[in-house]
Amino acid sequence: MDSDPPFLDTYKTLFENCIGDARTERPKDEKISIVEECELPLIDLSRLNLGVLEREECKREIAKASTEWGFFQAVNHGVSAEILERMRSEQVKVFQLPFNKKAKEKLLNFSPDSYRWGTPSATCLRQFSWSEAFHIPLTGILGLGEFNSLSSTIGEFATTVSDLAQRIAEILAENLGLKSTFFAENCLAGTCYLRMNRYPQCPISSEVFGLMPHTDSDFLTILHQDQVGGLQLVKDGRWITVKPNPKALIINIGDLFQAWSNGVYKSVEHRVTTNQQVERFSIAYFLCPSYDTLIQSCSEAPVYRKFSFREYRQQVQEDVQTTGYKVGLPRFLR
Q1: CB atoms < 10 A from the CB of 252, how many?
Q2: Secondary structure of the chain: what % helix, strand, coil (to 5)?
Q3: How far apart are the C-alpha atoms of 14 and 128, rounded to whole Å?
Q4: Would you name the residues annotated as active-site residues?
């Protein structure tokens, strides 16, 4: 399709050199294979609006899932099914545009580098992601012309999901004994962003990931995915496949929350597999602070040294450029 990025042509040398080459094959535990499908902890957030007992039990479940899994699914989350359906419909329209239009034209007032596909820095298949995405700062969603509908839908989606992220963050802070205004003061609309993802059909789906294994460099991520499936995460030292739930949003802890909580909450490695038959869509909201925000634990014995979000992002980018991989929080251990 002329809407698809030219993965096979652009990365022809990488694929030819690496597929079947034992020197660049994945370790056994990273092989793309069928892994056990599992239901994430499922939490009904409507209980936060009920009586004290129901509310406190719901908060305990959120904290427990964030500690033991780093992930959970939320239903009755306050984001309407109508908004989610419109969001998916609108993002499909954008991804169906001709590849040259997506890659070369400035859509929706997005910055020139908002459209990303493949992995230019990859030197082996373990470092390659068969996907395309639009990274959208929440300050850049004013659309023009044919994209007005997408712009307004993104605005509605971002507003409701942002409120949800703030509420979850406050609950997790409260569980640590902190009545904190930290997130409301530092994670503003101008510092958070969305990422619309598309994972095209992949003829070499047994060889490459849709999104390579990684952790998120934020406080919280809220994900809306379709029913194709493909999201996998590490639990108890093994990869498991997340079973899609049409009524749920997926919420996961990011690196910054793990550091801020002194390791109480877990930022868990996850990835997306490819599919040879069907494409997959998702949209993620990332709760991020300003670049100058200092991340430090309130614990008397902090595991991680104090660092700014800017310093963290720069270190991640440097590691990816030099090694092909994100190192992340281990760089900031005391």
Answers
A1: 27
A2: 35, 20, 40
A3: 9
A4: 280
User: Burial, 246: exposed, middle or buried (Cβ in 10 Å; 0-12, 13-18, 19+)?
Assistant: exposed
pTM of the model: 0.93
**Which amino acid is present at 13?**
T
pLDDT tens track for 7-23: 999 999 999 888 765 44
Total length of the chain = 334
All domains in the chain, ordered by first residue: 7-332 (2.60.120.330)
User: With left for phi above 0 and alpha for psi between -120 and 50, is residue 329 left, alpha or beta?
Assistant: alpha
Question: Which one-letter DSSP state was computed for residue 330?
Answer: G
CA 300, distance to chain mean position in Å, is: 31
Angle between helices 148-175 and 81-95 (to 10 degrees): 130
Count CB neighbours of 276 within 10 A: 10
Per-residue pLDDT at 2 exceeds 90: no
